[in-house]
Amino acid sequence: MERNHPMTGSENFSRTEPQSFVERYPGLQVLSSDPENAEIASRSDLQRLLTPKEDHYVRNHHPTPRLDESDWTVSLTGMVTETAELSTDELREDYATESIPHTMQCSGNGRTFFEPDAGGHQWTTGAVATAVWTGTPVGEVLEAHGVDTDAGWVAVMGGEAPEDGDVFCRSIPMAKMLDDCLLAYEMNGAPLSDDHGFPVRLLVPGWFGNNCVKWVSRIHTMDSMIAGEEWNGENGGPDYTRWQQFRYRIIPEQDDVPTAHTSLETTETHEQLTSEAIDNAYLYDQLVTSLITAPAENAVRDPAEPIEITGMTWAGDDPVECVEVSTDGGETWADADLFEPALGRYAWRRFRYLWYPSSESGDHLIVSRATSERGRRQPATISAPEAGLRGIEDDEFPWNKRGYASNAYQPYGVTVHLENES
Question: Which of 113, 134, 115 minimizes the C-alpha distance to 124?
Fold first, then answer.
């Protein structure tokens, strides 16, 4: 039998926490405690190839539920031959197990660099981290229950919403779900923490974190994206459409409510941002990005000594082809050494550049820009709202109301002060 609402009743979780949110994540900068949102506080901590679970950023839309795994099931409904209620034990024992290293990035990462301020928590650079996620291939589960492959979309619903709250739900293309998505139950070899989706979350490799639904309660295959009266709460149930159709989209200042689409010609974020196929791009795969991790912001260095510049780069579904570094804010560029993808195709890579300053004392803006194997390169800046951009144009990323997805390189740079010690 289909379940029309996710499991969110009081019988499934308690709000009693053994520690406060701050105590659970002492290395993170807390942006809000209700719901819980926190980012990696130091750029130097972004240099690690693998992020410890306790240092991985946390992004919540509703307060973290505390769930009893033995009572938790994932409903499989929609265009399948056999509906099901799958326990976490069944997911672990009845299907294959796979592990995927993945750099997960909140689509609001870098929001604080939008001018004027965009709405939402003001993430700086720390809403990105890399972990090894282990779980059950979604495609295997769907195929075992006779999925109709003509169903173009799979709606994945979280189970954390209060009874009168909007259900966090994302529509993922069937092709992606069959290809490499996981129902993850482990993170870096240990069970998920409550804040990271225990007992099971969706992993969509290479895509923004907003697609990686936590506390998965239902998977519904269908022939369209989630939209319309059946799902928007007008019939008396919860609203499943908010986070798919009206958030996590590029909405310029002049727009009010974006058009709800039932399908897309392309889900590639970059393609949507560089074409006229859609007015308000949806955020799916991550954009090519790099950021400087050292030296630290406002570091003082002796220009007589070489200065090591390091950073991290990733491009979602695509490999990074090269990274360039500029020590004059983007006027001139030099190739950085780009290290191998040590953890896999969906994980970030390190880069390094050794700078021998020849300039006099003063401030220098150090920036990096990455280019993917498909020739997609980071733009320089974020546009002004009045420009009304809907996509990447003229080396500018579009200012948007929620401050989503910017990969502009200037905000991810650091300023270094050169001062001769002699």
Answer: 113
Pairing state between β 334-335 and 381-382: unpaired
pLDDT one-digit tens code per residue, 318-330:
999 999 999 999 9
Q: Are 85 and 73 in contact (CB under 8 A)?
A: yes
- Asked if 16 and 64 touch (Cβ cutoff 8 Å), the reply is no
Residue 171 CB: number of other CB atoms within 10 A?
A: 29
Q: Is 189 left (phi over 0), alpha (psi -120 to 50) or beta?
A: left
Residue 34, both tokens: 């209700």
Contact 297, 43 (CB under 8 A): yes
Tell me which residue has tokens 């009266």: 229
Does residue 332 contact residue 316 with C-beta atoms inside 8 Å?
no
Q: Does residue 9 register a pLDDT over 70?
A: no
Q: What tokens were used for 122?
A: 């003001």
Q: Which amino acid is at 50?
A: L
Q: State pTM to two decimals.
A: 0.93
Residues 6+ apart with CB under 8 A from 215: 65, 67, 158, 159, 160, 197, 198, 199, 200, 201
For residue 107, count other CB atoms closer than 10 A to its CB. Answer: 27
Report residue 146 as tokens: 């006779």
Nearest CA-CA partner of 65 in 24, 15, 25, 18: 15
Residue 363, classed as helix, strand or coil, is: strand
Give the 3-state secondary structure percentages of the chain, helix then strand then coil, rounded to 5.
Answer: 15, 30, 55
Pairing assessment for the beta strands 73-78 and 58-59 based on DSSP bridges: unpaired
Please list the alpha-helical segments (H only) found in 145-207: 174-180
pLDDT at 6 over 50: no
Cα of 398 vs its chain's centroid, Å: 18
Residue with structure tokens 């197990």?
97
How does pLDDT run across 252-302, given as a tens digit for each residue?
999 999 999 999 999 999 999 988 879 999 999 999 999 999 999 999 999
pLDDT of amino acid 164: 83
- Bridge-based pairing of strands 73-78 and 216-222 is parallel
Both tokens assigned to 294: 């050292």
Angle CA(378)–CA(383)–CA(385) in degrees, nearest 5?
150
φ and ψ at residue 38, rounded to 5 degrees: -155, 150
Cα–Cα distances (Å) from 151 to 142, 148, 210, 220, in that order, read 11, 6, 22, 10
Asked whether the beta carbons of 179 and 79 are under 8 A apart, the reply is no
